[in-house]
Amino acid sequence: MTETPAKPVLLTGASGALGRVLVRHLGGLGWKLVLTDIAPFPEALPAGAAFTRADLEDGVGMLRLAEGCGAILHLGGASTDQPFEKVIGPNIRGVYHVYEAARREKARVVFASSNHSIGFHERTESIGADTQFLPDTYYGLSKAYGELMGRLYWFKHGVESVFVRIGSATPEPVNARMLASWLSYGDFARMIERSVLAPSVGCSVLWGASKNARMTWWRDDARQALGWEPIDSADGLTAQLAGVVSGDPVEERYMGGAYCSTEYSRAEPAPPGLFGENDV
To answer: Which are the catalytic amino acids?
Structure first.
């Protein structure tokens, strides 16, 4: 028999590509879903789902939507590199409203974080879940902020969180970088499912990548405790994609890829490691 949550689950960003993946997957499992997005939902709703258009910056609206929910899947907000003024509303104030709703309802938060929160780590590194944040854009910065918000609410209020640092969640990989960072839709959906159903998660991090042989960048996360392991892989496309690179030395050096080279203005490459020899 399929396990389902005892209480409804609120999903923000339901109209986006990954939101719709979750609606189809979780709705198919019989979950009761409370869906919201600033954009209309473009598909037929599964049984047991209700959709409400709402803005993450509407704190009262978020409180109302979360009433009676046992978990909040927070995918909403600016989901790509955007100017600071476009990020600050949905991704900064919005995540605060989500955590306030979770505090009131004693709900667990599953936060769609991103590899762009650590994007300026080099691809030659192997980093654990407790690594230093090195965001590569205002978008990545907002994801680091969201994780820190979750830590505050865990230590101060006991709100549980799972931070899913999504790699490249696309239907299939399209370049050499994605041979490492690709996360299949199926692995993503199963990851979120386990993040909700695991008995206890505390304040946990999951690296969002499938079972790719080239994924040597990310390690030591909470997957065993949550009962999740990826089963899909990009390896079958290695021969086809291994040579598909940008030619941009900044993009190819760092885990964040093209986001690192956007508006990059250093006259010379950064010294290796976290700090240059003249830094204090």
So the answer is: 139
The C-alpha R_g of the chain, in whole angstroms, comes to: 19
Between 185-197 and 17-28, two packed helices, what is the crossing angle to 10 degrees? 60
pTM comes to: 0.95
Q: What is the pLDDT of residue 12?
A: 98
The residues of the chain scoring below 50 in pLDDT are 276-280
Residue type, 271: P
Burial of residue 101, with CB atoms counted within 10 A of its CB: 0-12 exposed, 13-18 middle, 19 or more buried: buried
Instruction: Name, in order, each residue with C-beta under 8 angstroms of 86's C-beta and a sequence gap of 6 or more.
Output: 78
In Å, what is the CA distance from 195 to each residue of 73, 108, 141, 256, 257?
9, 9, 23, 24, 27
Number of H helices, E strands in the chain: 11, 11
- With a CB cutoff of 8 Å and minimum separation 6, the contacts of 151 are 161, 203
Measured distance CA(111)–CA(122) in Å, rounded: 24
Cα of 260 vs its chain's centroid, Å: 18
d(C-alpha 120, C-alpha 91), whole Å: 20
Residue 104: partners with Cβ closer than 8 Å, 6 or more residues away:
63, 66
Question: Which tokens hold the place of 235?
Answer: 């390896």
- The whole-angstrom separation of Cα 153 and Cα 248 is 40
**What pLDDT was estimated at residue 280?**
30
